[in-house]
Amino acid sequence: MGLPLEGVRVLAVEQYGAGPFGTQHLADLGAEVIKVENRHTGGDYARALGPYFVEGAKGDDNSLFFQSINRNKKSLTLDLGQSEA
Fold first, then answer.
1. How many Cβ atoms sit within 10 Å of the Cβ of residue 39?
2. Spatial separation of the C-alpha atoms in residues 71 and 83, rounded to whole Å
3. What is the reported pTM?
4. What are residue 71's phi and psi, to 5 degrees?
5. Using 50, 70 and 90 to split pLDDT, how confident is the model at 56?
């Protein structure tokens, strides 16, 4: 028996708080959640919040908070200022 939301795809354009928390639940229930971040702004503000995996090691993907609310998600960044990828 599969998860209730298997086969559902969600495009998550969100930052810090309610958006990531809500799509975390969708992902936990089997939805394919694809998180889109703006690379020019550094992405989701939650990346900067502690605690960190390694004390004093601030930076991308080191925030426990960021990892916890974005579990089970795929992610990508888009540069909409470029006409070609």
1. 10
2. 31
3. 0.79
4. -65, 150
5. low
